[in-house]
Design a protein that fits this description.
Order of helices and strands: EEEHEEEE
Radius of gyration: 18 Å
Structural class: mainly beta
Largest sheet: 5 strands, antiparallel
Number of strands: 7
Shape: globular
Helix content: 10-25%
Oligomer: single chain
Length: about 140
């Protein structure tokens, strides 16, 4: 068997970033399905300067069973994201909007990141969360 030499010491696990402001880049933006079977969008965000764990930020689709308040909350979150990352969108006469998902990957913004604890099968674990600022005039 041939032996190969690889720099495994450079493959250390990423850590959770402390609370703060960081420049983030959208590494991936995709449409997928939630565990409940509902459509959703997922943004995978990376830190441009530091080697911290990636952040997964979910946007749940509007469901026919959603109340007006839930629809407003879901769309407000997406609107904040699009504005923060300066993703162009076109607003229609009926109030709906369209954007090109290809414009999202690679976009950067300075963002507020916090630490949250989640329960996993292996016990609690800290993860980073994206905190989106209000849109001006909101």
């Amino acid at each position: 068997m041939a032996m190969i030499r690889v720099p495994l010491s450079k493959g250390a696990e990423a850590t959770v970033a402390p609370d703060g402001e960081y420049e983030l880049v959208v590494r991936k933006f995709e449409s997928t399905t939630s565990k409940a079977g509902n459509a959703m969008l997922v943004a995978t965000l990376g830190f441009t300067q530091e080697n911290y764990e990636l952040i997964r930020h979910n946007f749940n689709a509007v469901l026919s069973t959603d109340t007006d308040n839930i629809v407003q909350m879901k769309m407000r979150e997406l609107n904040r994201f699009l504005n923060l990352f300066e993703i162009a969108f076109e607003t229609e006469e009926d109030g709906s909007a369209s954007f090109d998902t290809d414009d999202v990957s690679g976009a950067t913004a300075v963002c507020r990141v916090t630490v949250a604890s989640i329960d996993t099968a292996n016990g609690p674990r800290d993860v980073n969360r994206l905190r989106l600022p209000r849109v001006r005039g909101e």
